[in-house]
Amino acid sequence: MKHLLKNNKALPLLIAGFTTCLLVSASGYTKNSVNAESNTQVEQKKPNFVWLVSEDNSKDYLKLYNPKGAEMPNIESLAEHGLVFNNALSNAAVCSTARTTLALGAYPAKLAMEYHRPYQNINLPEGLSTISDYLTKAGYFTTNNYKEDYNFVEPEKHWSASVKGADWRNRKPNQPFFHMQSWKTTHEHKLHFPASDVKEHPTKHDPKNVALAPIHPDTELFRYTHARYLDLHQQMDEEIGVIIKQLEDEGVLEDTFVFYFGDHGGVLPGSKGFIYERGLNVPLVVRVPKNFRYLLHEDLQGKSETRVDGLVNFIDFAPTLLKLAGLQGSELQDGQPFLSKDLSLPELNKRDTHFAFADRFDEKYDMVRSYRKGKYKYIRHYLPFNPDGLFASYRYKQAAYKEWKDLYEAGKLNDVQSQFFQTKAVESLYNVEDDFYETKDLAQLPEFKNTLVEMRHTLQNQLQSMPDLGFYPEYHLATEAKEDVIGFGEQSKDEIKTLIATADLSLMPYSKAEEGLKKALNSTNEWQRYWALNSTLTFAEQAKALLPLIEKIKQTDSNMLNRARAIQYLALNAGKPPVADLQNVIAKTSDTAQILTMLNIATQLHDALGVTFDIPFRKEWKKPGKNVKDPAENWRQRTIFSWFDARVSYLKTK
């Protein structure tokens, strides 16, 4: 040693060798591979992954993205050593569907898993499993604390532990881990407070200083609700800080990719449950560990805060973890890794597309699809006669939601604030860079015609190629697609293409669509008749020439849902009283999921025409008793009970 210290040429070599030994000791390196940071021949152990998930919040509630957002020092500390994604997007605007997307890296709309908490969970297709399952089988210790909320039948033991309080500390020595933890602190139910709280429970954030969305009325209650939600963000940041400190204290932080993100957007009125940017664009921060920087391209190594503008989708999360862990993904996955050695920041920033879907949220049905390319976003409303503000019991537990609707009914809102409660355009186009809240529809402006048509065709091709199973009602998929969803989709591709074309008759002027509608209403295919009825409802009174065909469907159609749609058209556009007819159709229907769709028709008529319905409550809708021992099945039955209880009760109100 003395000889080496005296030899100035040898000293740098000694220091480099000693540093390498420290790195090997600290990070578990062994021989025979390359550490890109030191170019020393070592073998790197697998990285750890932690997903820290806050529920129901879009990015604008964080000061990291918005000067008017909440200061969140623990999340900001992650950003200092990593990547901040300006355009991270869920593919769905509600938890179970979004979490299904995260788990699988595939679109639930092609897997009959797009409905929020479905009647029947769908079996996973052969060749596709969860990210936790892939990592568990590769030797990872996988833990979840503790929310799952998937729309599929779970594989056995795909988590090493998925219970309240689970963490990584029970793993074997040197075993890599994947940990997911969710916080309800920012969940929607935290805003289910009485309006009296405005006076009785002051907030830390000053309601006068919040930046209200242009879709919301500027009221004391809305300002208070926004400020209270910012307070909840700071509380959640403190809770997340405990986990970050735990990783640091245990000496594993620099071996761990830490992802912080929201599970979808929300949660002030008109965000969660809707595929506008405010319901989809979530915060995403990825802290890059020093010991695994070499797995990423040099300009994504997180040596200081790096902003990413490229569009990252929830379908990309599972493929990203598989790539970083050195594992192969599934051919059924739709996503692509957004972190890898070969992907530079300029290349990542070129990613500019996003696809989203919205179907049923609790008891409220809709069908919306959107496609974004760069700054332009195209939205296709397949049931535009259903306003966004159609009653959904859980949404309207927010006092601000109730106030919003009351102000609309009193005629005290401007056009932008009123749109939520009105029928929607069949298709819309927005520049979301300039118009984040999607208030200025460009679809009818001649200078955007080429963009509109191009994006419409791209979406049509996307839906056909998947194929999108949402063109069948949920009750049909629950019986026909459950066992082999991929096989069902392949067999149904041609039919789905026809159904899309039938639905797209509503994009034409009525004079050009009429003959196609007549043909479809007379079709022997029940689903073609179904989509012809939806298109006819879109045309409203313009389609009165079709009244004889619609009346015939009401009286004789073999599909009771089609009869209900016909009753809906006749009530809205021909003045036919709907109550007795619709109650009679519901009474003759046995399928529970089919009835829920009909109750949505009744709800739309209730709101539009002021009619009430008296629907007998069936025994199969009742809350489960103590005899239902399985927690998952008990929860499923309780959820279904709540939907019917809410709908039936609401329909009786004046």
Describe the structure.
The chain is of the alpha/beta class. Among the domains are: 2-43, no CATH class; 48-352, Alkaline Phosphatase, subunit A; 358-445, no CATH class. 39% of the residues lie in helices and 13% in strands. Strands 3, 4, 5, 6, 7, 8, 9, 10 and 11 form a 9-stranded mixed β-sheet that branches. Strands 12-13-14-15 form a 4-stranded antiparallel β-sheet, covered by helices on one side. Strands 1-2 form a two-stranded antiparallel sheet. A hairpin with a 4-residue loop joins strand 1 (30-35) and strand 2 (40-43). Helix 13 (449-465) packs antiparallel against helix 16 (493-503). The model is unreliable at 1-43 (pLDDT under 50).
Reconstruct the topology from this structure:
Elements: H1 2-6, H2 10-27, E1 30-35, E2 40-43, E3 48-54, H3 73-80, E4 82-89, H4 95-104, H5 131-137, E5 141-145, E6 161-162, E7 177-183, H6 197-200, H7 220-249, E8 256-262, H8 277-280, E9 281-287, E10 306-308, E11 312-313, H9 317-324, H10 345-349, E12 353-361, E13 364-373, E14 376-381, H11 399-409, H12 415-418, E15 427-431, H13 449-465, H14 474-480, H15 485-491, H16 493-503, H17 510-521, H18 526-539, H19 547-556, H20 560-573, H21 579-587, H22 592-609, H23 631-651
Parallel strand pairs: 3-7, 3-8, 4-10, 4-11, 5-6, 5-7
Antiparallel strand pairs: 1-2, 4-9, 8-9, 12-13, 13-14, 14-15
Helix pairs in contact: 13-16, 16-18, 17-18, 18-20, 19-20, 20-21, 20-22, 22-23
